[in-house]
């Protein structure tokens, strides 16, 4: 599962940061997830719980912040909002779009002790 490897990546960051910032427990994690990242939030929550079992982030609360997708429409020469990767431009109906945001996932904030 795609979400499982994403969570393993997140856990790696949490463990690295624990060494740098010398915390020993992660209580909450805020993750920013772009609408175009293709991440299933329910699958992500499930994977997070599984991956974090027996680690410093066991039982940590996962907060998901959805980031809307943005793309640049070449014919319209402007930035538009898109909710799915292959959606056409809402103004001209065209597909000459370059995704400019909302296709990533990143850790925004942590609550640790
Ligand atoms: Zn357009």
Brief synopsis:
With 113 residues, this protein is an alpha+beta fold.
Describe this structure in words.
With 113 residues, the protein is of the alpha+beta class. It has one domain: hypothetical protein PF0899 fold. The protein has helices spanning 2-21, 41-52; strands at residues 26-34, 61-67, 69-73, 78-82, 97-101, 105-112. The strands form 2 sheets. The chain has a 3-stranded mixed beta sheet, with helices on one face. A hairpin with a 4-residue loop joins β3 and β4 (78-82). α1 crosses α2. The longest helix is centred in the N-terminal third of the chain and has 20 residues, at 2-21. The model has no long low-confidence stretch (mean pLDDT 95). Residues 73, 75-76, 89, 91-92, 94 line the site of zinc ion.
Give the SSE layout.
Elements: H1 2-21, E1 26-34, H2 41-52, E2 61-67, E3 69-73, E4 78-82, E5 97-101, E6 105-112
Parallel strand pairs: 1-2
Antiparallel strand pairs: 1-6, 3-4, 3-5
Helix pairs in contact: 1-2
The structure holds zinc ion.
């Amino acid at each position: 599962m795609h979400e499982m490897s994403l969570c393993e990546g997140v856990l790696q960051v949490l463990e690295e940061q624990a060494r740098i910032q010398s915390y020993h427990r992660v209580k909450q994690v805020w993750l920013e997830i772009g609408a175009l990242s293709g991440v299933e939030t329910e699958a992500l929550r499930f994977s997070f719980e599984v991956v974090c079992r027996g680690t410093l982030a066991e039982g940590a609360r996962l907060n998901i912040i959805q980031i809307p997708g943005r793309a640049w429409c070449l014919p319209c020469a402007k930035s538009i909002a898109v909710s799915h990767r292959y959606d056409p431009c809402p103004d001209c109906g065209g597909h000459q779009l370059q995704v400019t945001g909302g296709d990533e996932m990143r850790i925004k904030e942590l609550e640790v002790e």
